[in-house]
Amino acid sequence: MSKEKVLTKKDLRKAAWRWLIGISTFNYETQLAPSTLFSVYPCLRKMYPDDEDLKKSCLNYMRYYNTMPWISPFVIGAALGIEDEGGISSLDAVNDFKVGLMGPLAGIGDTIGWAMIPTIFGSIAASMGMEGNPLGIFLWAAFTFVFLVVRILQYEWGYGMGVNVITKFGKQITVFTEACSVLGLTVVGSLVATVVKLSTGLQFKNGDVVMKVQELIDGVMPALLPVAAVGIIYYFMKVKKVKMTWMILFIIVASMIGAATGIFTA
């Protein structure tokens, strides 16, 4: 049985800001559930004047929930839309909705939010900075601001769509995730060849003939050394579970040794 909705844009934006503030409220039993409840509590208080109904709703939001934090506001906003319309009788539907979407949307969020977009804009900004162009800083600042606005507005987008998220995008989520993964890998692959600078200064002399190893490598496959370096780093981090901090220290030490001996040059 539906009821009259009571939440406004102001309520949803307040919830969005509380999500940004309380995202660190995390535990290994229910994951992001405490952050979710902290975010939506003022909305629940407005929806349920009765304390017993409020307790039931709060306990429902404290059930296990975990997805990519940057895209989570869309899920929570949609859940609020369902509950604001269905009331206390919709609690099971709200939880089932969150559980059903948190997996697929986590894949989208990780691909776009963690990997693809920051990598693209970060690499462009870094490249501009390496060339002495200060616009790279403003590009990264603009990206950060736009992404922040999107994260805030997701509450309103999700709330407006409610359960229609599933019927409208359900079949497209998997396809979209796979497409983003392919695009992300393509972008990262191209960045390896253009951003990672690694070459060798080794050369061999045979009389008056000088053979430079780097020219021989470029004749076989340009950017082979950067690709090999990235592959080795990926192997140690992915397979051997070496922490990123140790890999960074290893790269610094290897770069110093390589530069001192002339084996590697940037």
From TrEMBL:
Transmembrane segments: 135-153, 173-196, 216-237, 244-264
Record keyword Signal present: no
Keyword Cell wall biogenesis/degradation: no
Matching InterPro entries: GatZ_KbaZ_carbometab (IPR050303), PTS_IID_man (IPR004704)
Record protein name field: PTS system, mannose/fructose/sorbose family, IID component
GO biological process: phosphoenolpyruvate-dependent sugar phosphotransferase system
GO cellular component, one term: plasma membrane
Keywords: Membrane, Transmembrane, Transmembrane helix
